[in-house]
Amino acid sequence: MPMPHRTQMQVIKRRLVGKEGAERIRELRAILDELPGYRSGPYADIRKWVNAQIEGTRTRARVVHRDSIAVRREGAAQVAFVGPPNAGKSSLLQALSNVQIATGDYAFTTTRPVPALTRIHDVLVQLVEIPGLIEGAGEGRGGGRAFLGVLRNADAVVLCQDSSAPPDALLAIRAELERASISMPSIVASTKADEAESQTVAGLREAFADLEIVPVSVLDDDSLATFAEAVWQLTGLVRVFARRHGDTERNPVALRPPATVADVAATIHHELARDLRGARVWGSSARFEGQRVGARHELAEGDVVEILT
Fold first, then answer.
1. Domains of the chain: residue spans and CATH
2. Among candidates 210, 211, 227, which has minimal Cα distance to 219?
3. pTM of the full predicted structure?
4. Rounded to an integer, what distance in angstroms lies between the CA atom of residue 206 and that of residue 298?
5. Which of 109, 235, 85 is nearest to 161 (CA)?
6. What is the rounded CA–CA span in Å between residue 271 and residue 28?
7. Prior bond of 258 cis (ω within 30°)
8. At a CB cut-off of 8 Å and minimum separation 6, what does 11 contact?
9. Is the CB of residue 70 less than 8 Å from the CB of residue 150?
């Protein structure tokens, strides 16, 4: 009798932690051989997921090595993952995206910034792992000055901390950011939360009393979903759904508030912005459904907009 499928998925993910490239493919094939051969139901879905992981690992086997440390911005927002070495940043980035990163239980496994795209609420958000920072980063220790330069371009920061480790190293990194005058919306990701005891997480809350603490484990899909939602809130973006007259399809446009009808038109196409005459709006910013508004009308999260030209 196979174990419950949710438990099986957690076991599989645990077996894959720290494995990449050929080693990951070998482990995935071994997992595939061990799974029941059901053609339908949850275990069939697990087999499909494992096969997709094998194919994805093959196509992503090349990890990007850059001559320049600069990271080209993509997506609607850029969120940086910052923390001491071996704080679980790589595993977390990998769990939220399709990028394949070398991970390991030793410090400085990642030596260059690693960008990855993830989709949250149907909007592409760029996540960037900053290699492990250490005290003295602002003076160039451990390549810290260059890493801080990358960090300055981000819209928000996730401070990553191993839930079972003391917060001293992360506190030192936060002090480095303050000395470098880097200040932006931030949360603390309490990583490897499945291995932590409640008092260690409580200590983290005490050390960072002014920030939201989000416990997360790459082995727990629910905690990953909660963390992704926290990242979305961190971006400060609002989604507006644009549609054409007579269509039911709605495409999300992510904007920074205050977001106007003109902003939506400009994001879609410059010609649409040029020919803009107004819009019809459904949602909380409208006094009534389908209200006709002008180009400067400010929109709210979840509004549906039909551009008029």
1. 5-59 (no CATH), 78-235 (3.40.50.300), 238-308 (3.10.20.30)
2. 227
3. 0.72
4. 39
5. 85
6. 49
7. yes
8. 3
9. yes
CB count within 10 Å of CB 36 equals 13
Q: Which amino acid is at 6?
A: R
Q: How far is CA 150 from the centre of its chain?
A: 17
Q: What is the rounded distance in angstroms from the CA atom of residue 285 to the CA atom of residue 5?
A: 44
Element (H, E) at 115: strand 114-120
From residue 125, give the alpha-carbon distance in Å to each of 122, 169, 227, 233: 9, 27, 14, 12
Section 159-182 average pLDDT: 89
Inter-residue contact 78 to 154 (CB < 8 Å): yes
d(CA 72, CA 178): 24
pLDDT tens per residue across span 238-267: 999 988 776 666 778 899 999 999 999 998
In one letter, which amino acid is 92?
A: L
